Amino acid sequence: MNKEIAQILKELSYYSSLGLQVAISILLGVGFGIFLDRFFGTTPVLMLIFLVLGIAAAFRNLLLAVKRSKKL
């Protein structure tokens, strides 16, 4: 394998993991919010708060990925 193909495969594997990172961030936020809602009995409130936090974490991960991709 030459260096160009190795670099392309490295970037491809990095970018393909971004969707998974976004999904996991959001799902963890929602899951934690649902757990806390059931624990405290505040049905939609904490789930919505942690959904927003999960989305914010997902965008943060995307921004960090863009910064890292400039270094690749």
Number of helices: 2
- Total domain count: 1
Spell the H/E element sequence.
Answer: HH
- Radius of gyration (Å): 17 Å
- Which stretches are low in confidence, meaning pLDDT under 50 for 5 or more residues running? none
Amino-to-carboxy terminus distance: 18 Å
Major sheet description: none
Number of DSSP strand runs: 0
Explain the overall architecture.
The chain crosses the membrane at residues 12-36, 42-63. This is ATP synthase protein I. The structure is a single chain. The longest helix has 38 residues, at 3-40. The protein has helices at residues 3-40, 45-71. The chain has one domain. α1 packs antiparallel against α2 (45-71). It contains two helices and no strands. The model has no long low-confidence stretch (mean pLDDT 92).
Which key phrases capture this entry?
2 helices; 90% helix; mainly alpha; 72 residues
Concise description?
This protein is mostly helical. It has helices at about 5-40, 45-70.
Detail the topology: elements first, then pairings.
Elements (H helix, E strand, L loop, with lengths): L2 H38 L4 H27 L1
Helix pairs in contact: 1-2
